[in-house]
Design brief:
alpha/beta; Aldehyde Oxidoreductase, domain 3; TIM Barrel; 2 domains; 6-stranded parallel sheet; 4-stranded antiparallel sheet; 10 helices
Length: about 300
């Protein structure tokens, strides 16, 4: 789950976060903790959830290889109970105190996203639908938010504007229904000439009438059913299968999806459900750092 992380970008993000917190001049620790004091920090889950954050501990090992020892007790995607010990750090007390808040901010966010994602994944278990994230992520946190979604058992939609095509209603502003299929055909042709080619081509539709026009265009991989009712989704699936497009064109449901509605959506036969809430509305999971062997100066 961590293989898609750009480690250099993560390192810069970590350093920027520490700089934002003023770690180079932690005046509280400087005035209360002896330079030679060493300690142990235990990271503990204060509530149950799903763990995401192995890449952060990898980062600590690399960044502080001569200062900290890092022991991690859980794996990405593992269920945690309240009181579980996530990891143990040992090293200089001033360093542990300096990174404490930033480390907790990272872990609490990641575990919160993974935990919420798992709830959606569990809700559609037994159907063919899979949970996908969106680009509704915290600015600067795109790769980590999507990493946490994977830890929770979800799947990643496109990373950004550069790797896949998603034609939405604003892209087709001014295109009439009569010319929609022709416009999309031209787009698919241009996309085929891109280097590298897009990971997939997806087109959003708001109505059954638009859907019929998209069905005419070869080369569309995914059709986004935006704010369709359950009946409309079932109708769309039936029509696609009648045309022999099952397995060639997938449906993605989006718009107003929550934990109370996601199961019903999955049972319509759509293959993908895109949920912005797993990143834009995830609540931080309570993770604490308990420090031991603090030696105060003089």
């Amino acid at each position: 789950m961590a293989q898609m992380i750009d480690r250099e970008r993560l390192r810069r993000q970590w350093e920027d976060s520490l700089a934002e917190d003023g770690v180079d001049r932690d005046i509280t620790s400087l005035t209360t903790v002896d330079d030679a004091a060493r300690g142990t920090a235990r990271l503990v889950a204060r509530q149950g959830g799903v763990f995401a954050g192995a890449v952060i501990f990898d980062l600590l090992r690399e960044a502080y290889s001569h200062k900290l020892t890092v022991t991690v007790n859980v794996q990405d995607g593992a269920d945690m109970r309240m009181g579980d010990e996530i990891a143990v750090l040992a090293g200089p007390m001033q360093l542990l105190l300096g990174i404490e808040r930033t480390l907790l901010n990272f872990l609490q966010r990641l575990c919160g996203v993974a935990t919420l994602t798992r709830k959606y994944v569990d809700a559609v278990e037994g159907t063919q639908a899979r949970i996908y994230d969106t680009r509704k992520t915290i600015p600067g946190w795109r790769q980590l938010d999507k990493y946490a979604v994977r830890c929770g058992g979800g799947r990643n939609h496109r990373m950004g504007l550069h790797d896949a095509i998603l034609v939405k209603d604003n892209h087709l502003a001014g295109v009439s229904m009569d010319s929609l299929a022709v416009a999309l055909f031209d787009m698919v042709r241009e996309a085929a000439a891109l280097t590298p080619p897009p990971a997939f081509i997806e087109v959003e539709v708001d109505t059954i009438e638009q859907l019929e026009e998209v069905f005419k265009v070869s080369g569309v991989d995914v059709i986004l059913l935006d704010n369709f009712t359950l009946d409309q989704m079932r109708q769309a699936v039936k029509r696609r299968d009648e045309l022999g497009l099952a397995g060639r064109v997938q449906f993605e449901a989006s718009g107003g999806v929550d934990l109370s509605s996601v199961r019903g959506i999955a049972e319509t036969g759509v293959e993908r459900i895109a949920i912005g809430a797993v990143t834009h509305s995830a609540v931080a999971l309570d993770v604490a750092m308990d420090l031991e062997t603090i030696r105060l100066s003089g």
